[in-house]
Amino acid sequence: MTGVETLPWWAAVPVAFLLVLGGLIALIGALGLARLEHFYQRMHGPAISITLGAGCILAASMVYFTVTQSRPVIHEVLISAFVLMTAPVVAMMIMRAAVYRELRGEGDRQPGDESTHTPEERRA
Questions:
Q1: pTM of the entire predicted model
Q2: How far apart, in whole angstroms, are the C-alpha atoms of residue 45 and residue 26?
Q3: Cβ(60)–Cβ(15) under 8 Å?
Q4: First-last CA distance in the chain
Q5: How far is CA 56 from the centre of its chain?
Q6: Could you give the CA distance from residue 23 to residue 39 in angstroms, rounded to a whole number?
Q7: What is the per-residue DSSP string for the chain?
Q8: Would you give per-residue pLDDT tens digits along the chain (124 residues)?
Q9: Which backbone phi and psi does 16 adopt, to 5 degrees?
Q10: Domain residue spans of the chain
Q11: How far is CA 107 from the centre of its chain?
């Protein structure tokens, strides 16, 4: 037996709820990434929602393995702490790089555009 068959209902309900909730939140973040138009909007949705979705999935994993192994399992707490600390920092660094790129004038260039004109000259 793998433990799924012997999982009590009081543990199966929260595990199933957290898994479905985490999957839905991650799906909403992915849809936000696909639908939003501006780069900064596209960064904001996934950075927040994917972190919350991963937290729900890790909480479900922690409940499941704690019940099936009859001992506290805290590996997921360490993973959650790492994700919660690194995901916002990574999103901020990517957005900061985009701001610096726009300030230097490279944000308006298209791939393969080798012209030496500045963005203001191209608009005129």
A1: 0.72
A2: 10
A3: yes
A4: 72
A5: 12
A6: 24
A7: --SSTT--HHHHHHHHHHHHHHHHHHHHHHHHHHH--SHHHHHHHHHHHHHHHHHHHHHHHHHHHHHHHTS---HHHHHHHHHHHHHHHHHHHHHHHHHHHHHHT-TTPPTT------HHHHH-
A8: 566 677 899 999 999 999 999 999 999 988 888 888 888 888 877 778 888 999 999 999 999 999 988 888 888 889 989 988 888 888 889 889 989 988 888 655 544 445 555 555 555 5
A9: -65, -40
A10: 9-103
A11: 24
The burial of 13, by beta-carbon neighbours within 10 Å (0-12 exposed, 13-18 middle, 19 or more buried), is given as: exposed
Rounded distance between C-alpha atoms, residue 99 and residue 94, angstroms: 9
Residue type, 96: R
Buried b (16+ CB within 10 A) or exposed e, 24-46: ebbebbeebbeeeeeeeeebbbb
